[in-house]
Design a protein that fits this description.
The protein contains 14 helices and two strands; from the N terminus they run βαααααβααααααααα. It has about 270 residues and is mainly alpha-helical.
């Protein structure tokens, strides 16, 4: 595996990735022609999902081989294990992280690839920031990229809830596995999957696991009013910044030191 170099795995919430498949199936169906071999590969039980047919598509997906390039949960689990086994060779990067915190994610990617810091990272991060609310993930609606992703996840959960219990179990039985992995980024994804909701990590979390976070002075005293929206790290294992005395305290300390210096007599024979 050394000869393969480093592997960057671009992924996302498997529910979002799964909800993109109906559009691809639709394109494949439209492109079908008797002379095109891809038509023969299309499963007969696949129906292109619309707002009404969504649950049918999810059901077919879970019950059959109607999957593009494999099952989304299985693929994520496979690469997550590979990352744990070979952290210097394999690393997962989530698409949504490039949108929510492009600067930190680009820095993490650059570090993993062994690139020296440069202004290119900042330029790329700025370019992503400018585009993230202009339909980076979808130009078909007026939602921001984050809203579009969360909307697709919620729609999946609505479709799943409409299916029979035995079909839901085909999905749910695979979810606990992700909680057992030591990959910190998967902690919040696992929680989101098992709660059938959208659970996002705190704003400071990505910087923390990348190793470039700065601790919050207020969090240890539980007086940070920003909470999960704070840019500074709230992790208990993060070293606190050195407390800097106020200006009045520094002036008082200087006066005390000056008073001691004036009152202390010089040793005999050393005075000028």
């Amino acid at each position: 595996q050394d000869c393969l170099g480093k592997i960057v795995v671009l992924t996302s919430d498997p529910r979002y990735l799964l909800m993109q498949q109906p559009d691809v199936w639709g394109i494949l169906h439209q492109c079908c022609h008797p002379r095109v071999k891809v038509c023969q590969a299309l499963p007969h039980d696949v129906k292109v999902a619309s707002a009404v047919e969504g649950p049918i598509f999810i059901q077919n997906y879970l019950r059959s081989s109607a999957q593009l390039c494999g099952d989304e949960l299985d693929k994520l689990a496979h690469w997550a294990v590979k990352e744990v086994e070979n952290p210097d060779k394999v690393k997962l990067f989530f698409i949504e992280d490039f949108i929510t915190d492009p600067e930190t994610t680009i820095t993490s990617l650059s570090r993993f690839l062994g690139q020296k810091p440069s202004d290119v990272e900042q330029k790329v991060a700025q370019a992503i920031s400018l585009q993230k609310d202009r339909g980076t993930l979808s130009k078909m609606d007026r939602l921001s990229s984050t809203e579009h992703l969360h909307s697709a996840i919620r729609q999946f959960e609505e479709f799943l809830a409409d299916l029979p219990t035995e079909v839901q179990d085909l999905w749910n039985v695979k979810l606990p596995f992700f909680a057992s992995l030591p990959q910190p980024r998967l902690f919040y994804l696992s929680k989101s999957l098992q709660e059938h909701s959208v659970v996002t990590a705190p704003r400071w979390f990505l910087s923390h696991i990348t190793g470039i976070c700065k601790p919050c002075s207020y969090a240890p005293r539980n007086v940070c009013h920003l909470g999960d929206s704070c840019n500074f790290c709230h992790d208990l294992g993060c070293a606190l910044p050195r407390h800097r005395r106020s200006q009045k305290q520094r002036q008082r300390k200087n006066r005390q030191m000056e008073s001691i210096r004036v009152r202390t007599p010089s040793p005999g024979g050393l005075s000028s």
